Every structure is written in structure tokens, then in C-alpha cells.
């Protein structure tokens, strides 16, 4: 459920996922602090005196991404979520050779990790520098915690890549396929390449919107593109960290019985490195909203 309401100071339209109801947050247009109401369009209660009008971004983005995130990782209050991330990665790593259990465990673990990533983005965006609490649920709620984030990530990716998907399907008679997309140099190949890469470029902005806003209705091109020209390099920094996490993940290997201990330790270390880089990436996406929220239209 998405809670939409107006800033009690400047009147800007604000949207948060329903799970943030009652928490402190601030308007990124005017910096007014308030408590997130329980229902849409309820009047938000101010948490601090009205700030001076401010339409500039908050400085310190790179410091927050690369230095403050290290502090988050070594904060004793974040031991529990970090220990759980290590545990689920190790669980998946050592179940790699267990036939059907490998597929099932990977699906469940990645679904839970996607939910953890979404929570990291939303917590960071609303000025919270602690990692989110672990949410496991029971029976049906556990399945929702797995399936919901998995659907959110995949559907968000589908929406930003929809122009590419449609263009590729409309030109299938030309002989261009996904497998041959980057092997040709025709105008059609170049056009499809631009659509594919452009969709991937918009993905950090899109997943930020769904994580904080909690709705797919905000995934409009004008909303996604508005902050990019005015804060391009910070946005590319967040995108580069997300890309690095994906690339490292493609290089991971799982446990192989009989492998030398040194190889096993190295392979497990690479799997854990993916999660470290992913936390940096998700915090960078959330920090992009926190520092450059004045450029957003929603």
C-alpha cells in the first residue's frame, strides 16, 4: 500500500510505502521534517520547526556513499542483518550441489535478498543510516516476503526494458535476435542496443521509485528522467556500483565437493563480496534520493 500526502510546509506531493507509516521523514523539496501519516492524504504532523526555503541538493553524496557506508557495515547495531545476509549466502553456497534444493534455495534466498535491498534503499532515502530489520514472517507472509520483492525487481526491469522488448518483437523478421544483438553493426542493431542500454540505465531510478514510492504508477519517463541531467555523475556512480555487483555475481561459483579448501574459501569470499558491493549500491541509490530529492517531480 502506498501512502500519498502533501508536505505540511511546502505542499509537495510525497509518496511512501505503507510500511513507513508513523516514521520520521523529511520533504526533499523544502527539508521539513514530519511523521508519515497512516493513510493517504492525511495531514502529516511536523517533527521540527519550518525550515528555511531550500531548493539546492544536499552536499556530501560521495562521502555518504563511500565513507558513511563503511560506518554502517561496522556499526554494532547492524550486526543482526549483516549476520543474516552472511548466513543465507553460506546456506546457498553449500547447497549448490543438492539437486532440486539448489534451485529452491536460490529462489527463496534471492527473493529475500531483493526484499532486503528494497528496504535498504527506502531506509536510506528517508534519512535512516541503519540497515533494516530482518523480516521473515511465517507461512503465507514468508512467501510474500520472497515473491513480492522478486516480482517488484523483475516487473520494474520489464517496464524499463519494455521499449526494447517491443522493438525487438516488431523487428524479429529482420533476423536480429537477442543473441546476435551485439554482433551486428546495422542501424537496426544500433537502435536496439540503445534501447536496451537505455533501459538498464534507467533501472536504478526505477527501483528507487518503487522502493520509496511503493507503486508502479510513478514509473513515468518524466519522473525517472527529471533528476538525471542535473545530477548525472552521482546517478552514474550509483549505477556503476549496481553494475559492479551484477558483474561480480556472474563470476561467482558455488561449493564443489572435493575442491581444495583455498578454492572453497575464495569462492565463498566472492559470493560475500557481491553482497558488500550490493549494499553499497543500494545505499547509493537511496542516498541519490536523499541528496538530490529537490530534482525529483514526485
Structure summary:
With 298 residues, the protein is mainly alpha-helical. It has 9 helices and 5 strands. The strands form 2 sheets. It has a 3-stranded antiparallel sheet with strand order 3-4-5, with no helix packed on it. A two-stranded antiparallel ribbon has the order 1-2.
State the oligomer.
single chain
Give the strand line-up of the largest sheet.
Answer: 3-4-5
What general outline do the C-alpha atoms trace? globular
Terminal CA distance reads: 17 Å
Describe this protein's structure:
The protein is mainly α. The protein has nine helices and five strands. β1 and β2 form a beta hairpin. The two termini are 17 Å apart.
List the helices and strands and how they pair.
Elements: E1 2-6, E2 13-17, E3 24-26, E4 33-35, E5 45-46, H1 61-73, H2 79-94, H3 100-125, H4 140-160, H5 162-170, H6 187-213, H7 221-225, H8 232-250, H9 261-292
Antiparallel strand pairs: 1-2, 3-4, 4-5
Considering the chains and any ligands shown, give keywords for the structure.
about 300 residues, mainly alpha, 2 domains, 3-stranded antiparallel beta sheet, two-stranded antiparallel ribbon, 9 helices, 5 strands, globular
